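Chapter summary example.
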Amino acid sequence: MDAGTFVISWLLAICVLIPSASAAEFDDAIQPLLKSRCVRCHGPNEPKASLNLSTAAGVARGGESGAAVGGGLDNSLLWQRISADEMPPDKPLPAAEKEILRKWIAGGAAGLPAPAKGSADHWAFRTLQNPQPPAVRDASRVRTSIDRFVQARLERQALTMSADAGPTALIRRVAFDLTGLPPTPDEMEEFLADRAPDAYERMVERFLSSSRYGERWGKHWLDAAGYADSNGYFSADTDRPLAYRYRDYVIRSLNADKPFDRFLREQLAGDELAASFRSGQPTTPDDIELLVATHFLRNGQDGSDIGVQEPEAFEVDRRAALEAVVQVTASSLLGLTLHCARCHDHKFEPITQKEYYQFQAIMFPAFNPQDWVNPKDRTVYAYLPGEKEAWEDNERRLKTELAGLRSEYRQWLADHREPAELLLHDKFDDDSWKTRWSSTAPGDDHPGGEVTIDGTAPNAARVVDGALQIIASPAEAWLSTTTAFDWTPDTKDSWIQATFDLVDNKVGGGPAERIGYMLAAHDFDDSGPKDGGNLLIDGNPTTATSIYRDYPGADQKPIGAIGSEGYVPGRNYGVRITNIGDDKFRLEHLVDGYPEGKSHELSAADLPDGGFAFFFSASRSYVIDEFRVELSRAEANSQNDVAELRKQIDVRRKEYDQQRKQLEAQRQTEPGRAIAWVTDKSAKPPVVPLLTRGLYHLRGENVEPGVLRMLTDASADRDATEGERARFSPQPPTKDAQTTGRRLALAEWLMRAGGRPAALVARVHANRIWRQYFGRGIVATTDNLGQGGAPPTNPDLLEHLASELVAAGWSQKALHRKIVNSTVYRQSSAPRAEGLAADSDNRLLWRWPVRRLEAEVIRDGMLAVAGELDPVRFGPYIPTKQTPVGEVIVDESAAGARRRSVYLQQRRSQTLSLLKVFDAPAVATVCTARPSSTVPLQSLALLNSDFAVARGEAFAARLRAAPGGSEPTDLVRRAWRIAIGRDPSAAESALGCEFLSAQQGQYTGAEAAERPLADYCQMLLASNWFLYLE
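The structure predicted for these 1030 residues follows.
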């Protein structure tokens, strides 16, 4: 037997003999295997990915990516790497050793200590203690205190920081990192020409002061806060049309360097901080910002507005929205997986299920499932001082002037009407109208709906200010004339008509769907179908008027349309039936007393039997006056007289329209702004139950609002004085309070100076900022700084950054300034042999980590280089759309199509395809760390998408229009300066000129002169030189 066979047989024997549930299994078989194969990289000293496989505790704890073996084979990161032959990196494990590990993990990983229950003394839960920057052997490269922390770690590995990058690489790095855009040629020239010792620092200040800084870093916060322009709930990804105000608030706040603690207070409890709003006074600009800020609590998914559902489904959707609020808050602010305690006590952190529901109780009043407000109704209208009063004064003036104009016009029409016998005239100016109208159809003993003709009670028909209001109601309701008229015109050219003045096409602010009225038999009833039926005239407020055959007890049947104009308040409308001979009749639409648009021909058999009655449909909503029923006189004027009269009416009508439009043009847009916000429904504290196993129908004990004990334990808080600083104490609502005050109490507790919660918030945020610069957080799990997360690779540095953030008054720009001015940040990205040998993953930051630009930065950068970036800021989102082949794009012809990506529609179920392929998140909940993949689809998108082709063409046009030579070498050099930020090397220039020459052969005619440069520009924008920061 050879040695290899013996080893394999020995290992298999051990696998069979060791008891599956014994700690000896790990000690005797697993640990020796791991030590022999894995500890070289994952040992106790500087383990890669913070994964120490030398001890049982280290294996149980896992590394930066989380637990190594927990959760069985499917969830074991260790098994995933080993089975894919990714570990060990130099040589895969033999099949027999893989089998040993597979059985051990599948059997529950016996022998490992149980995950230690989280402790309130976990490093992330302690108060901040700013460590003294360490001494270093070589301080010549130290520019900021950050450099000392990094240099000290490097020196322990006999490494040093790399030399500074060149000035062109530095300005490009700073510009993209601080603004998300490439430096302009003017910015490049200004910096490169500046020889002052502080030239770099002043360049940094210029970019920090740019309004583009807020757009760049605001997007990072929006991702962490779960922002989207849609509700994103399964198939019901409905719109959030006002969410953009929160996006703009974030950008403005960051540009103003609003202290981060204040920034968070406003988002948690802006409505409770807005003094002018709470007092019922006109809202100040600052208070409007506070109301907008509360949209932070609406960023989670919410499917509670998806329509008719079963009660159980409503409960599920509402509870899910409430839970999303808790998850967004805990993850984005505290960096904790609080949602893991919804169904049971947390498995890794010292968080009980009861604490989860106590925390939820803070948000519960604003998202009470039993007193729910649908997302579309969670809005408020806010006015600045004086705005509403001035607008109301103008509205009153216009109303008076329009009423006078309308009255004058009506009188003129009354004086110039065609001769007719007035059968019924109602001005609705006294109670006599009740005697002329019935709440039932003629001949019917029962109302057609819930109609009560009573001017004193809410009903479907009432008179207010001398006009008849038809009020929309869910059920169809009749309102008909009590008097029947012989509608049949006996002689040719005689007619009968009904008209009314339309005062308004809405009641109570809601526009009418249609203006409905009916011609019907007087003996109509709904006991069954009638021969011929009745005629339902259905006027659309924006288009023409439709005709339906209405059979009582049966469905309506469309038979035609009359007229062409919609219904506008201030005009007179109606219908006329004219005898045109041979037992035929013409039905016409009347506007201001005479027919307009197309008519409809009827036979005698088409008309209702019996007398004529006039109905209004009370299922609609509008206001009318001056109702008339008229019959043409036998001695009517000649056709010539009528034609002349109609000409006069047409002239006068046009004059009236012009005067009315002039007045309407003086109407001002209603002031103020609609805000999607969050507030408590009332100050009365709701009952909040603990849900057993997280199930909505299993209500457990009721809980009071509270926070996490691990952050409130005074005995573990070195800076707490009798626990006062650590106490969460919402005050009982006062008599006139509008909210419970719980969220404001949370905000104050969270950001209290010197407290453990504020320390955790500072660590979380400082870690995320660091990650955006260096591609990896000091804690790799940026949304989990608890015991279940990865340990920090440089704990003292993280503690220092968090402490400096707080010490600078929570100024984010101060922390950016400190990082960007450091030597660590300014390093070259060039690899060095000793660095690769000692730290191939560059975890110690001995050089600048090369990073690919993010999805939005790629798109924005391409637009900027092409000279097409639209600088307009703020406002409603630019919509995206899906093409027939499934690609999500921005319509290039749409207004704002070339604005920055932060202003594009952020729809959860419809991420822009170009952004998605470069790892832009859909933001199901929150996104605190994006992956950075390299896949073929990225190259295909930059080569074939219409967006990329268009940018290449625009970039080429910019190069041709710029001053300078037009030779290929001139164009190539200019292209590199604009897109890459430097001159091309001789080889790069030669290659570009060769491409231009060769590409000419691919085209004919005019394209041979135009397309090669456009193709070259597109290739340059698709190159790694453009896509990566070095």
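To summarize the output: The chain has six domains: 3-106, 123-161+762-838, 164-210, 259-382+678-754, 419-636, 944-1029.
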